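ok, trying the design again with the full structure, not the truncated one.
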């Protein structure tokens, strides 16, 4: 992994982009899993999850492109700083909207899962949390239904905060 030699700042950029990509890919995986489970139950996923997935997909593509441009020594730093700032704003919005119902939620108090696993608990909580007006899922109620859902959603929230 050669690339230009910008000293400590160059090494920092490389390591930070790699860590950002790993965090974003983890967020994409967890969010896509939730959306997949919701869609498999023929429901509409909450806009919070769809927005999170959209922003993180764009951000991971951007991280990969800027990393490649940096290695080829053709990365325009001023434009990159501006786009990084815009992505920071988008990730702050994701962290705030995902974390809004989670900030005071204690996942340990929800209860542990049984032997059926989190997929079964998720499906049961999904059926319980559907808003009767239009078949939309109430995000605030849904995240507090099962312990695995709560913990995974808090992981998404924590990784979004870590990306600041």
């Amino acid at each position: 992994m050669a690339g230009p030699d910008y000293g400590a700042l160059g090494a920092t950029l490389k390591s930070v982009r790699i860590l950002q990509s790993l965090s974003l890919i983890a967020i994409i995986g967890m969010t896509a899993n939730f959306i997949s489970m919701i869609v498999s139950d023929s429901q509409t996923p909450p806009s919070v999850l769809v927005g999170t997935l959209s922003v993180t997909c764009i951000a991971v593509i951007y991280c990969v492109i800027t990393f490649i441009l940096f290695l080829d020594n053709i990365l325009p730093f001023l434009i990159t700083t501006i786009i990084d700032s815009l992505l920071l704003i988008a990730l702050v919005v994701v962290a705030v909207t995902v974390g809004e119902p989670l900030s005071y939620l204690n996942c340990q108090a929800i209860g542990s899962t049984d032997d059926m696993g989190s997929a079964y608990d998720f499906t049961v909580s999904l059926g319980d949390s559907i808003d009767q007006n239009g078949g939309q899922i109430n995000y605030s109620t849904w995240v507090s239904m099962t312990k695995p859902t709560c913990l995974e959603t808090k992981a998404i929230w924590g990784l979004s905060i870590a990306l600041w």
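Keeping the full-length input from now on. The chain has a mean pLDDT of 80.
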